[in-house]
Specification:
Elements (H helix, E strand, L loop, with lengths): L1 H4 L16 E3 L4 H11 L1 E5 L7 E6 L4 H6 L6 H4 L13 H11 L3 E6 L2 E7 H12 L1
Parallel strand pairs: 1-2
Antiparallel strand pairs: 2-3, 4-5
Length: about 130
Amino acid sequence: MEEFHNLKVKDVMQHRVWDLPLVNENADIKFVLVILTTRGYVWVVNNTKELLLKGVITEHDALDLFDNFNDEWKARDLMKKNVIYCTREENVADVINKIRENKVRRLPVLEDGKLIGEITLRLLIEKFYSLLF
């Protein structure tokens, strides 16, 4: 389905940044855990005004807490710093390849390091389905 693969990320992505699970890199680890229980992941940003992406925390990362919990930890202490991302101008085909190669379910969409949205497998499935009819 060439039409689907040639779509731009901006045509599929979640644009509502205010609706994304995100925390400041200095957020208390207990606050991060609350978000993980409801959303399963958290984007970590420098602050909620600039939204410069610093990392991501997933449910899987919580495994490190079970053995090494420290009440003083902040989001920055648990986050993965090397986040695979995309831009709004990339093709869906490129995003699908990144998702496959890196075995992730979602990618942040960045512009000059700033979080401007995300693209998820669910959004890709919904868009694909809508093009079938």
